[in-house]
Fold this protein.
Amino acid sequence: MIVPAVGNSGSFGVSFYGKKREPRMTDEEHNRYIAWAFLANGIFQSVIVLFMFVILFAFLGAGASDPEFPAGFFAAVFGFALSINLVFLSPNFVAAYGLLKKRPWARVAGIVAAALSAMNVPLGTLAAVYSFWFFCGDQWRSVYPETVARDSDERPQINSYNPSRWEGYTRDEEGAYVHRTPPPPDWR
């Protein structure tokens, strides 16, 4: 007989014959595995860049005897491809470092690295989906509580009175707030 688990918000999964099933992984472990996924994707992309070096040197070595061989063109194309690969490669290592060391900026770095590595099939896509699931949900809050506290303090507070003239509130002689229709803006 399968019975839904009941209890506090920490309960997870399905209960078999009244026994509560605990989560298999903690949020700390998810954080660590995401860091290792970014590191694996970064290393995989680095191997691909090294393979590009080997191919470039093979082309340059094969065309060295031909005076009309466009060695400068191949070097320029390779330099451009290398710079694009470094743009997509470096956030993986930055995010992995931040996640392993639990830096306050690690969540933002993880989301940026996930967005840039999502198109790198298969490791980048797996790391991106896993990190989007973790960082766009509520799981990250237990790993980075100082970020949650800082973000909650920086949110603007909604007051009943805003001194901006666009709100249309003014005070009358008694000090009460009175709404007046603001004039339309002059967009000329």
User: Anything to note?
Assistant: DSSP finds six helices and four strands in the chain. Strands lie at 2-4, 14-16, 169-171, 177-179.
